[in-house]
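User: Sequence for Serpentine receptor class gamma below. Tokens please.
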Amino acid sequence: MLAFLNGGFSITYERQVKWASLSLMQFTLVMLTVLITMITTFITFYKLRHMKKRIKSSERSLCVAAGLITMLFLFEAVTESLFAFFKDAPWLIDIMSYIMWSSWDFLIVG
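Assistant: Structure tokens for Serpentine receptor class gamma:
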């Protein structure tokens, strides 16, 4: 079934196996991605800090980009956790959908 949201659409489904949760699986994958992104961002910041010959403008651009990517993955992880654990609260669906699709848009454009 198609669900239209903010000029786009997404595909919804009806779960056939009640104990299997696609949002929980996706939450697990997003958490792994967040962990990898945070570790590599920390390593990038650390290595840039201890370079002998520093280029300030390039370092600033790289730090801003790495920080934004990490923050957007954290927003994605938050929305996936809400989908995985609080999917029975209908008032959260609109907020979660908007935050999730917005974070995906910023990650793709960024």
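The beta strands are 2-5, 8-11.
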